[in-house]
Write a structure and sequence with these properties.
Elements: H1 2-8, H2 11-36, H3 43-54, H4 59-77, H5 80-99, H6 109-128, H7 137-148, H8 152-170, H9 173-195, E1 200-206, H10 210-220, E2 226-231, E3 238-246, H11 248-261, E4 266-272
Antiparallel strand pairs: 1-3, 1-4, 2-3
Helix pairs in contact: 2-5, 2-6, 3-4, 4-5, 4-7, 6-9, 7-8, 10-11
Length: about 290
Amino acid sequence: MTFNRDFSYSVPWNLTLIIIGSFIQAVGFKALAAAHGFVPSGLFGVSALIEYKSGLLNAGLWYLLLNIPMFILGYLLISRRFLWYSFVSMLVISVAYGLIDFRIDIQNQLYAAVCFGVIAGSGAGIVLRSLGSNGGLDVVAVILNQRYNIGIGKTYFSFNLLLFSFSFASLDNDLVIASLIAAFVASVSVEYCLALFNQRKLCFIISNQNSDIADTVMSRLKTGATFIEGVGAYKKEPRTILMVVTNNIQLKRLEEVIFTLDPHALFIVENTFNVIGSTFSRRKIY
């Protein structure tokens, strides 16, 4: 477990995530978004809009220029490690966008928007699993979150609201709506990538055999457990609730242990986005 934690903080692992994720995003931006005239969300959307309206430079170069003030802010207000990792992502996106010379042949606008959202969102999610970011708006979002506790989602929502409002005023409405669909699909893809391998199941077991269940869980499943004291609402009798955090793979085994020892047990399972600490994920420090 210590090896896994150290490995997730290593430079080669983080650079691998950033380079692969950024290249995937660049493919989506150039092979689909640019080919259909979509406006991506975030700062790259501003870059694409400038390219569409001015015809000067390409969106990758505009993205590089618009990131300069962002990285000045990041240098002053966030860690240098976060800044350098984000710089690598921004550089890979900008360079790859200029070098990619093919398009994914999807004629239907809606299909292309969905495909673009999946590709761009998956790439962004891979990058965000590292200790860096995609650059651009991510830098501002992290600063506002750390300094003023403003949710990262709120920052993106506010910025994209302005971006797409301006797009409606200057571009074809059908095109902007397709871009909105792509942005929504991308956000879902990002969340899926971030939850992948991190999502856990929070389980509560109410049983008269909780002591035996806890011993079996710890010995057979090699998983920790916690007793929570409670009181039954009907009879007002003290009850011991067993809490176990596990993953999808062991969930069925946990269920078998519980109902083998107590067929009348109450088994409650909740999805969790992430579990940090102990033997689970390490807290990400930028």
